[in-house]
Amino acid sequence: MEDIMDLKGRSLLTLKDYKAEEIDYLINLAAELKAKKKQGILGDSLKGKNIALIFEKPSTRTRCAFTVGCIDEGGHPEYLGKDDIQLGHKESIEDTARVLGRMFDGIQFRGYSQETVEKLAQYSKVPVWNGLTDTYHPTQILADLLTLKEQFGTLKGLKLVYVGDGRNNISNSLMIGTSKLGINYTILAPKSLWPNQELIETCKQYAKESGSWIEISDSLDGVEGADAIYTDVWCSMGEEALAAERIAILKPYQVNPALIEKTKKENTILLHCLPAVKGNEVTEEVFERFADVIFDEAENRMHTIKAVMVATIGK
Ligand code: CP
Ligand code: NVA
After folding, report:
1. DSSP letter assigned to residue 251
2. Ligand 2 mutation target, pool 114, 237, 242, most atoms within 8 A of CB
3. Residue 301 annotated among the catalytic residues of the structure
């Protein structure tokens, strides 16, 4: 049994708000809940709790993870799609937040603006979990970290190389999570897709504290020695109009057999948050080679999101 760490009442808007030991605690709690579920043991930590799931953008994994995770612990999830509620059409975020906060014990938000999820937390006064914004995707990174831990037994000192759109929500959140937990983080991307300088500086400070480093380069040579490669779509949700431009600049950054070769390692793994556009950021053959770990990662969304709910609103 893990030591109890009190995260009750906390929102998860970005991993910047969580200390390394708190992130570690959530990963360990998720591993414990996963092991229990495999033995057929479910909890009742969310009995009597209702959670709202607001989706401005579509989702398979995040929606299902919150739904199944909540029900496994005895709670009730309510899906609120973008056309189902007044948010953004007829009612302000502040007012919707105050209504939901009176009825629900926790709120998941997936959408465009980071400011919206922050306002929801401020006005609802119940824990709000960021299920992806244009800027961050913190719950995804918890699943990625659990998967790395399962694969390598430890996180400190690993080298994770992200290849592709180096300034999207996944890369931003990975840079925060890895630098806090002592994983060395490399971004390989064209210069026009490098992250925001202020975020790089913040994460370099985290890396200094955890004894890791961050490297950002447009040269694919940086993949050498990678324990894990990570890639994501070249156009995130909402950026569909940029597809042709992105394909043109990101084509050299495709994860293909030649790139895997450049690691000069035998046991490098590939992670992908999914959904994948095979033929763009990763070839079908390479994707299939690493499918087992990629789908472990997808499954781990559920165990980690369950851990976040149990830790922040559970009994
Ligand atoms: N990885 C992820 O967030 O998947 P969904 O968009 O299906 O939720
Ligand atoms: N960067 C992707 C992640 C999807 C889970 C997007 O925002 O569409």
Report:
1. G
2. 237
3. yes
Query: Closest residue (by CA) to atom 3 of ligand 1?
Result: 62
Residue closest to 232 by CA, chosen among 188, 268, 198: 188
Sign of CA dihedral 30, 268, 283, 175: positive
Residue 8 region by backbone torsions, left for phi larger than 0, else alpha for psi between -120 and 50, else beta: beta
Question: Token pair of 281, please?
Answer: 């950021």
pLDDT digits (tens, 9 = 90+) for 165-223: 999 999 999 999 999 999 999 999 999 999 999 999 999 999 999 999 999 999 999 99
Model confidence, pTM: 0.97
pLDDT tens for residues 124-162? 999 999 999 999 999 999 999 999 999 999 999 999 999
H-run or E-run covering 309 = helix 291-313
Tell me, yes or no, if 89 is annotated catalytic: no
Give helix then strand counts, H and E, for the chain.
11, 9
Residue 303 CA to residue 296 CA, distance in Å, equals: 11
Residue type, 12: L
Radius of gyration of the chain (CA): 19
Q: What is the pLDDT of residues 280-299, one digit of tens each?
A: 999 999 999 999 999 999 99
**CA distances from residue 315 to 44, 66, 112, 139, 211 in whole angstroms, order as listed:** 8, 17, 31, 21, 35
